[in-house]
Amino acid sequence: MSAAVRAFSSIKGAAAHRASFNKIASRAYASQAKSLKERFAELIPEKQAEVKEFRKAYGSKALGEVTVDQAYGGMRGIKGLIWEGSVLDPEEGIRFRGLTIPECQQKLPKAHDGGEPLPEGLYWLLLTGEVPTAEQVKGVSAEWAARSAIPSFVEELIDRCPKTLHPMSQFSLAINALQHESHFAKAYAEGIHKSNYWDPIFEDTMDLIAKLPNIAGRIYRNVYKDGKVASIDMDKDYSHNLAKVLGFSDNSEFVDLMRLYLTIHSDHEGGNVSAHTTHLVGSALSDPYLSFAAGLNGLAGPLHGLANQEVLRWTLKLKDTIGIDASDEQITKYLWDTLNSGQVVPGYGHAVLRKTDPRYTAQREFALKHLPDDPLFGLVSKLYHIIPGVLTEHGKTKNPWPNVDAHSGVLLQYYGLVEQDFYTVLFGVSRGIGVLAQICWDRALGMPLERPKSYSTAYLKKMFGAN
């Protein structure tokens, strides 16, 4: 079959898939007052009016000053972005639309067979600011399942990747290829009015989020297993289907871990690399596929999403060096040897937080409930009680407490997902929920092209009269 015929078949398949989705979605929403898209459409004019009024009254107010150190220091702490879904407080931690992680665990709907919140509910919350009903979340689950198929040419593209190509590179490659399906790119080419940008953007984000498990599952099964990918269950939730395509859906605890993992890793306000990059690229009116692929390339860095596997590797190296049952004294000596050699202790400290990361705490509580006697979790618990004191005495870490990366690896290891290079792909599936919700609001509010001003060192020296 020629490439042209394959592409045509893919387009026909996508059209048939959308027609099928419309029928399924109609049935799913028959018992609801409003779908997510309908509720989002209602909120847009209200939010537009709120922003317009606020800018009129306070637009000239300063959010703070920018120092030379901040300009050289990666713009750390500069207040200059709007991000609706979440705000990270140094002392409180992350709040999703005002709700802490424990509050989300309490208030968001859960599956009948699990104790953790469904990420579908978090997406509704991030997009609308409202806690959804169980029926509304069920509708989102059905919609994502109905949209989950990926075109045959994307499947072929993933299948042709060598196993030695990093899973994150394959993930980004596949999402870039999915841009072929973009509703927004097509609508923009046809001359859509900017006031309606949000509509095809919404469709793209729903399609993209829905397809992430199938992409991730195909990469995982190709690289680490037999290449066979299970089909999506149309009557199951998003996390169940992610676990299924990975090959772990028979373990109900792993499925519930995925619900927790996808929820807590989804959003962390707008300044982190993956969120900011997605927003920045989207500000050029790049469609959600191109924008999110760019964000994933940032997530793949060792100072961002790759850190979770780096922490696990460091922990396993500690275990192999001094033993999984090492004493507090042995661990303390190992930590000081690490610090005195000029290396860092990964998984501890955070650019913004000044307390234990609530995402770490949520995972620790999951472990205490489901795997309290696991030896590796026991070692991680020891580190939790020892490392902050050592780092405080060392005196060079502003926040000696653990972040989310210090715990996620041990949970995945326990349930048999031991392939560390794949961990950032899971992070990417989750992060799509947060950054794509924000892209919908970026276009609904008409956020402009992002273009901060830059200076050279020579110009700064002249500005301050430095020699």
Automatic annotation (TrEMBL):
InterPro entries referenced in this protein's UniProt entry, alphabetically: Citrate_synth-like_lrg_a-sub, Citrate_synth-like_sm_a-sub, Citrate_synthase, Citrate_synthase_AS, Citrate_synthase_euk, Citrate_synthase_sf
Keywords associated with the record: Transferase
Q: One MF term from GO for this chain?
A: acyltransferase activity, acyl groups converted into alkyl on transfer
Q: Does the keyword Secreted apply?
A: no
- Residues at the catalytic site: 304, 350, 405
Q: Write down a Pfam family by its short name.
A: Citrate_synt
Cellular component per GO, a single term = mitochondrial matrix
**GO biological process: any one?**
tricarboxylic acid cycle
Annotated PANTHER family: CITRATE SYNTHASE (PTHR11739), CITRATE SYNTHASE, MITOCHONDRIAL (PTHR11739:SF8)
Q: Which family does it belong to?
A: Belongs to the citrate synthase family.
Its recorded name reads Citrate synthase
